[in-house]
Amino acid sequence: MNAPFGFALVLVLTLVAQAALPAYRLMIVLGGAALSCAGAAWWGVASVEAVFAGVPWNVLLILVALGLFTHRLADTQVFGLASVALVRVARARPAALLALSAVGTYAVSSVVNNLTALLVILPVLLTVFALSGVSQRFMVWTLGLMLVACNLGGAATPIGDFPAVLLLGRGSMGFGLYLREAMPPTLVAMALMLVLVLLQRPARDVPATPLGRRLTLATLARLYRGVRIDWVLLGPCLGALVGMVAGWLLLPSAWGIGPELVAWIGAGIALLAHPAQGEAAIKRGVDVEAVLFLLALFVMVGVVRETGLFQGLAVWLQSVPLPPEGQLVLFLVVAAFATGLFSAGPSMAALLEVADVLARQFPSDAVYVGLALSVCAGSSLFLTAATAGPLMQSLTERAALRGVDGEPLLFGFREYLGVGLLGFVVILGVGIVRTLWAIA
Fold it and tell me: What residues make up the domain containing 92?
C-alpha cells in the first residue's frame, strides 16, 4: 500500500467511523489525526511541525470569534422576539407560516451559524404547532424547508457557515467578492424551493379556523410576555457587526489586518458590552468540540495533501474525456455526493485542495462558489449531512407533538428524505448553471 492511498484510507475510515458512532466522534477523529501524524513522521512524508504549520489556524480563530459574537447576539433576545413577530405577521396561517419561517431562517443563518438560527426560531414554531395542531405532512415540509433554508443562508455570506468561512480565512475569496457571487444563486435556489414546496399544498389538510388562530396568537403572546430585548447589549452587537462587515469589505490587505483580526475585534466589542457576562460567555460559549474536530480534520487533510494525492486527483480529473466544463461539473457533482455522505466540514476541507488546482484553469470565483453551492446541496441531501439536522430532530422529538388525528408526529431521516432530495437537486442545479454561466 503506497503512502497516498494509506493516508487517504485513514481519513475516509475515520470519517465513516465518526458518522457511524457519533457518541465517540471526538475520540475517533483525534485518534485518526494522531495516527496520520505518526505515520507521516515514520514514513518521512512530513514532520509533525510541517503538518501543524499547514493548519489554517486563522480559520479556527474566525470560527471561535464568530461563535462568541453569535452567543452574545442571541443573548439580546432579538431573534426570539423576531420569531414571535414572524408568527404574528403570518397570523398563524399555515401556508404563510411555512413561507415566513423559511425566509426568516435563511436571513438569520446568513448572519449567525446554523445551530443558533434553529435554536432561536424552531422553539417558537414548535410551540405554534403544539397550540394549533398540524398534520404530519405539513410539519415535515415546513421543518424540511427550514433545514434547507438554513444551509442556503449559511452559504449566502462568508460568515454564515464553515465552508464560506474557510474560503474567507484561507484568502481564496474576499468578503465582498464572495457575497456578490454567492448570495444571488442562494436567493434563486431559496425562491425555487419555496415555490416548489408551496405547489405541493402542504397545508391543505391542516384545520385552521379564525378562532383557532386567534387563540394560538393570544397564548403565544402570554408565553413570551416577559421576554424583553436587551438594548444595552444589542447596540454594541449591531455596531460590532456593522464594523466587522465594513472591515472585511474596506480594509486594504496591505495593512496586514486579516479577517481573523477583524472578527476578534468585533467579538471583543460584543463581549465588553457586559464584561461579567462576556467573561461567562467565553467560558461557556466556545464550542471546544467543534474546534477540536476541525483541528483533527485539518491535520488529517494536511497529511494527505503532503502526499500529493489531491494534486493527483486534480490531474486525473483533467484527464477525464470530457470538455473542461464537463470536468468541472463532474467535480461539483462528486463534491455534492461526498458532502451528503461525510457532511460539509470534511468534504470542504478535502475538496478545496482539488479546487485550488482547478482554479488555475477556470475563473477562481466560479470554482470556489460552485464548490460552496455543491457542499450546500450535499448538506441538504440527508438529515445527518446537515449541521443542524440532528438538532432539529432532537428538538422535535422533545416537543412530543401530536397531529390533528392524535397520532405522534415524526421527523427523522426517512421523513426528511423527500425534502432533502428536492433541495439537493435544486441547489446543485442552480450551482451548476451559475458555474457554467460564470465560465462561459
Answer: 3-439
